[in-house]
Amino acid sequence: MSTNKRANRLLNEKSPYLLQHSHNPVNWYPWGDEAFGKAKAEDKPIFLSIGYSTCHWCHVLERESFEDRDVADVLNKHFIPIKVDREERPDVDHIYMSVCQMMTGHGGWPLTIIMTPDKKPFFAGTYFPKQDRYGMPGILSVLAGVHEAWTDRKNELLDAGEQVIQAIQVKSGNVSGTLPDNVIPDAYNQFVNMFDEVYGGFGSAPKFPSPHNLFFLLRYWRAYGERKALDLVTKTLDAMYSGGIYDHIGFGFCRYSTDRKWLVPHFEKMLYDNALLSMVYLEAHQATGSKEYAVIANEIFEYIKRDMTSSKGAFYSAEDADSEGIEGLFYLWSKEEVLSILGKEDGERYCKIFDITVMGNFDDRNIPNLIKNSELDREFVQKCRKKLFDVREKRTHPFKDDKILTAWNALMAASFAIGGRVLSDNSLTDMARNAVRFIETALIRRDNRLLARYRDKEAAIPAYLDDYAYLTWAYLELYQTTFEPEFLKKAIKTNDDMKKLFWDKENGGFFFYGNDAEELITRPKDAYDGAMPSGNSVAAMNILRLSRISGRTDLVEDYEKVISNFAKQISQAPLGYTHILTSHLLYLNPSQEVILVTDYNISSIKPFINVLRNNFLPFTTSILYGSDFHELTELIPYISEYPITPEKPLAYVCKNFACDNPISNAEELQNSLFQ
């Protein structure tokens, strides 16, 4: 990054991404009234550049162009340049990424948009080199062409901007419909057809983990007894862990694999990927009984605790792919280096296990991986790993984006809560508690409005749909782990607040930004899953789970309106909507609730709880009711119908709104759940 001492307006921002550009010679503005007012007053188009702090090609674009005086001179003279951190302003990114995809057929970051002073886009692209190269126009050519057109044919650009606005508004409109009966098996069959039988995962390179696809397949296996669905999951999880996409020295997963084998990652590490992946390894552990999956989940948690957790218990956003200006440098090893650290005998053995050679497997160096080796002596590997880790810690670390995002934090908290439940580890549950407590104390405004981002003692930006949906998810998982009514109460309240702010009263479904937030050129509403499940799909799952726990039928009606609203889009491309299809599997499966009743302390009912924790029961919700939990009757009125007996704890298994006779031992509960 530039060390030019002259700062621009970004110096006063909190976003690490904007601060990275605060000493560019480009006279950047943050998104806001000042920039748009100046564009109107000077009759200049806006050059909008969107990225994030750990984006490799964003760094390349900055070095090539935004630190270059020639480019800066053109931008400063003929345009109003605006920088946006997509992680802070996903609403802005969401809209203009849709524009780019519509105009060019592709998208990605850095995102480049040129638009009128009233925010109407007429040009879109992603990365541009400084000069014409690779068969691509250079950024100087693009700017010159746009300036000429703005000077000589401005009305054509204004008309183009109007047409884009009309097209994007039509695209974001929703038509109610019904999901066809075959949409779920069709989605499953598409996964089967796309599956890489050799290396796991779906499609060809680049390969993304997409854990929400694996959530769907696990539930498909449980619902239909289709063994192959489970095999697709385990083959993929095994292959991802074996590959270089997993950090075998320091733990945690990188963003995606650039090749089919999962060997060469894009080396950045994102909080949300590791949250979702730890969840799916935990579910696979429950589904298969494999302790290996539990070990991997625990390793991810160790990475997050060690490197991505603030002193107040909140989670940082991401780690860069680059260090010292070179992608992946922090993670790479020469064989000579490994032998010098481990000694010849242990070093040779370790190198053989992890595919470390003199020639190297990436740019003359090595990415440790287990692609050719599935058998591990974990004690030996751990001994060597610790030595290598200690040496690696002394290297120059990749940049860490230390902003705290509500949605990503809530997602990681949900995973820690699941980890605490599945692994019977209270320390993991405490991590989840601490994270949501941070959100409650630092990211809620005085009027109780949730905020989206915290950094450097400042909370800002009204929270989006994703923030509310993911926080509800975290509360739900904490309730299912601890059975403390306070978490259920907070889940219901957060869900109700979300409906007030984001619900589409005409068509159903949730808008992306609230009715009290900045009004943009359109108000998007979709359920398409990207790297994370969409806010609408997470909200749909939450609503359904809350309805099963609380007995509220209005929530079922809300769920059905969400599904109806997106039915046409889901039917046309089901693999883009797997998380909402996962919720539909829950909807279609017979409801099953386990109500645990005890007048003792929670330890007296532990055998029942162990049955629930040790099995993969994605269509089952559980409630604990006792004399200490009388406030549950306010949240779940029907719970008072279950008598609390002082003699012994009891379990009621309720299916399709009817309950069996009470069960008094764990073995009976196990049998009843799997009848």
Describe the secondary structure blueprint for this structure.
Layout: H1 16-20, E1 29-30, H2 33-42, E2 46-51, H3 56-66, H4 69-78, E3 80-85, H5 90-104, E4 111-115, E5 121-125, H6 139-152, H7 154-172, H8 183-194, H9 211-224, H10 227-242, E6 256-257, E7 265-266, E8 269-270, H11 271-288, H12 291-307, E9 318-319, E10 322-323, E11 326-327, H13 335-342, H14 344-353, H15 378-392, E12 400-401, E13 404-405, H16 406-422, H17 426-442, E14 451-455, E15 458-462, H18 465-482, H19 485-502, H20 535-550, H21 553-572, H22 578-588, E16 592-598, H23 606-614, E17 620-626, H24 632-635, E18 650-655, E19 658-659, H25 666-673
Parallel strand pairs: 1-3, 2-3, 16-17
Antiparallel strand pairs: 2-4, 4-5, 6-7, 8-9, 9-12, 10-11, 13-14, 14-15, 16-18, 18-19
List keywords for this structure.
Glutaredoxin, Glycosyltransferase, alpha+beta, 675 residues, 11% strand, four-stranded mixed β-sheet, 25 helices, five-stranded mixed β-sheet
Explain what you see:
This protein has four domains: 164 residues, Glutaredoxin, CATH 3.40.30.10; 203 residues, Glycosyltransferase (Alpha/alpha barrel); 198 residues, no CATH class; 82 residues, Glutaredoxin. With 675 residues, the protein is an alpha+beta fold. The protein is built from 25 helices and 19 strands. Helix content is 49%, strand content 11%. The chain starts with 15 loop residues before the first helix and ends with a helix.
